[in-house]
Amino acid sequence: MKKLLYDMLDIDTQNPPGNERVLAGYIRDYLADTPCEVTIQDVAEGRANVVARLRGRTPGHGVVLNGHLDTVPNGMGWATDPQRAVERDGRVYARGASDMKSGLAAMLCAFRERALTGVQPEHDILFLGTCDEESGGLGAKAAAEAGLLEGMDAVFIGEPTDLGLGLAAKGCLWLKLTAAGKTSHGAYPERGVNAIDGLYGFTRVLKQAVEGGSHPLLGAATATLTVVGGGVKANMVPDRAEAVMDVRTLPGADHAALVERARALAAAWCAERPGLAIDIMVTNDRMPVETRPGSPYAQKMDAVWQRQHGRPMKPAGTAFFSDASVFLRYADCDVVQFGPGESDQAHTPNESASLKACDDALALWRELLGEM
User: Using CA atoms, how far apart are residues 146 and 140, in angstroms rounded to an integer?
Assistant: First the structure.
């Protein structure tokens, strides 16, 4: 598996622009000597999913092994080349090591080994490598709309859970806020309507309205101001400002109702400040996800782990979104997340993953798939 992982880490799939089709082609070739049906699903220029199906004896049911092919941009502050896998002290360093090419490699290696046994599974096993997870979820949407989830009972996603049993994930709303005011000379601010002041004050109101609640694995909902822009000149009151709020929600949250409430709050805020207008646009909407109570797939995974390690798996929750938030808009299936990566390594300089954890993940997938 190590060669597989290092090869995938050396393929640049930073999103943007993604270029996941190169990695999709590599995976297709990796599975070429198996009895799987392997196809590349083109999604956009240079963007593609890879789909491999091991047909089961009984049609109409199955499970999906899912991982995303893209990574976030490399960024600055690396001690090594982020596009070359480097091994040090039992860890591999490269962009995507934890999020989530280590999880992808563990699932893919076990899937290939299962296919090469020549033993037909009871139900279909589908390996689905998706593009654009780190942005708009184009790959997951294309896969779902192509009917690839039809008849599937569960989706396993190899996101970084530090080998924990991922049972819940926060949802995400990116709200683009645009404020319009009135410009004036900076020496006479009372003659204008300061769009920056008005917008910033509203973000505090929105933050207070959204944050709160509690989940045993996820903590509280959050609303974070992540992008700010505006202003004309140092001595002019700004008549325009923009901001982005990154809202993370808990299972059960109604995103449509939340957006409606945000717009109502904006209208009330502006009514008290004549000349100010605030528009709210949703640029990303990922629903929160929670594994069904008593999920047989989570129980099977935990049983394998207990046999291998003599202890139960640690329940885990993730504050970040995954392709599950897209899949569940199209399919009524169970979702369990599990991967060797660590969430505190994701999107950071010097991102790394434990090679021991990768081996443990591979061992679990081997046994779990062997039972199917």
Answer: 10
Looking at residue 136, its pLDDT comes to 87
Sheet hosting strand 352-354, strand order edge to edge: 86-88, 91-93, 352-354
Are residues 154 and 179 located together in one domain of the fold? no
Answer whether 173's CB lies under 8 Å from 184's CB. no
Q: Cα–Cα distances in Å, from 346 out to 22, 101, 167?
A: 22, 11, 19
User: Could you tell me which residues are beta bridge partners of residue 246?
Assistant: 174, 224
156 and 13 inside one domain:
yes
Assess whether 87 and 206 both reside in one domain.
no
Domains contained in the chain, number: 2
Whether the Cβ atoms of residue 63 and residue 126 lie closer than 8 Å to each other: yes
| CATH code of 162's domain | 3.40.630.10
C-beta of residue 193 within 8 angstroms of C-beta of residue 241: no
DSSP output for 296-312: HHHHHHHHHHHHHHSSP
At 49 the three-state DSSP class reads strand
8 with 53, same domain? Answer: yes
Which tokens go with 242?
Answer: 């923009």
- The predicted-structure confidence for 281-322, as pLDDT tens digits, reads as follows 999 999 999 999 999 999 999 999 999 999 999 999 999 999
225 CB neighbour count, 10 Å cutoff? 16
- Contacts of range 263-267, beta carbons closer than 8 Å, 24 or more positions apart: 265/202, 265/205, 265/206, 265/209, 266/177, 266/202, 266/206
Same-domain check for residues 15 and 88: yes
Statement: residue 59 has pLDDT above 90: no
In what helix (H) or strand (E) does residue 90 lie, and over which residues does it extend?
A: none
- Domain stops at, among 235, 268, 286: 286
3-class DSSP state of 242: strand
Number of H helices, E strands in the chain: 9, 19
Q: Say whether pTM exceeds 0.85.
A: yes
Mean pLDDT along residues 34-57: 97
Domain containing residue 76: 2-169+288-370
* 333: nearest Cα among 270, 277, 289, 369: 289
* 2-20 tens-digit pLDDT: 999 999 999 999 999 999 9
Beta-strand ranges (E) seen in the chain are 37-44, 47-54, 62-68, 86-88, 91-93, 124-130, 154-157, 165-169, 171-180, 184-185, 212-215, 219-230, 236-237, 240-249, 277-286, 289-290, 315-318, 334-337, 352-354
